[in-house]
Amino acid sequence: MTIELLVRDAHVYLRRDWEIPGGWVAIADGRVHSVGKAGDEPSSQRTISARGRLLTPGLINAHHHMYQNLTRAYAPVTNGTLFEWLSGLYPLWAKIDEESVYLSTYVAMVELLMGGCTTSMDHMYVHPKPYLIDAQFRAAKDVGFRFYATRGSMTRSVEDGGLPPASVVQKEEEILADSVRLIEAYHDPKPGSMSRLALAPCSLFSVSERIMSESARLADTYDLRLHTHLAEDHDEDTYCAEVYGCTPVEYFERVGWASKRSWVAHFIYPSEAEIGRLARAGVGVAQCPCSNMMIGGGSADLMDLRRRGMHVGLGCDGSASTDHASMWLEARTAMLLGRYRNGPGSMTARDALDAATMGGAACLGWSAEIGHLMPGACADLVVWQMSDVALAGAYTDPVEAWLRCAPAVAGLTVVNGKPLVEDGLPVLKDLQDVLSRHARHARRIQCVEA
Ligand code: ZN
Q1: Residue ranges near ligand 1 (ion) with Cβ within 5 Å
Q2: 100 alpha carbon – ligand 1 mean position (Å)
Q3: How many domains does the chain have?
Q4: Is residue 283 scored above 90 in pLDDT?
Q5: What pLDDT sits at residue 273?
């Protein structure tokens, strides 16, 4: 087999328990063909030297709302609570359409690639117009990104005691029919897939009980994964107590979601017993440390959840809550948060990197192929770029230095064997045009003059 790309002379982190100082990774046909130490490199059509750099699997983003980069750092709501923030932004989000969702998805994926992320889910739950997720799949294809869409939904508007305006919620039948249409059009379960789809009602307080239970049933029928926000805010506890007479986790169990198919975002306020039950059920968690800290609402204890057997990945969350999409920054913040909470011996850079790679892959039910660089894995990798100034004096541990020293960005990001970022810059010829069209839509939505 012809080796198409060889990245050599790097400190290669293949997975948690396997690193090769001065190592190389050879890629053929979208897969990791082989790995090894300096001196036994195979010949290749193209060779890139990564001398002095760290090479890792591409990071995996387990929770995001890409369309929100159309309303980044939106001043009127930046200091609100979660519910105030959502209520303030929903009227703006009601103005998104197919083109703005295409552009926001394109921009989000480029931003993720520049931060070393090669696979991301997206939780798209605002549907003022049809075919928005179709637009996202088009953007993913144009960028070359490995995309795990989730068909989000809301049925409860302000008139039914929910938060969003009526124009962004949908009828139950409409949601279910569109979910089936999207699954059949885009979900590709085959190995090496570039497009998958999960079902993702927005939250327990924004959809009907029927949508929760029917989504679980559809997931069984089509062998899909399930995603939602869970235990993110104390307002959710109050809502569930009043409307369902139980806690959010009890309701989650009641509607058939406590299963290996599910991964949830945040999971900040479960009881000890509830953590144990969902861990035994096989539910995964996407921790979003920057979003949690920005909104000031607490955060899950990542290492404790892992000790209890839960798969924990990391997510950057929506681009209007954390306003960035750097998974490196999420990994660093997760490490800082863990050590701040539990002391300096509680969490290492490798723990954070493992969460950002294998943890995310497990959330997506995709650990066999992504999140590591074992031969046969999908060829999704990053060579990290940090200045010589930032790394001056860091000689003893390249993985700790990567997360402790100054901001790391991707020098090279490879997805499915193809370099999409080189020398720190995206290799996408349409990017400038996409950015100017994105600016027009963002200004329209925020009513900001050019
Ligand atoms: Zn979210």
Answers
A1: 317
A2: 19
A3: 2
A4: yes
A5: 97
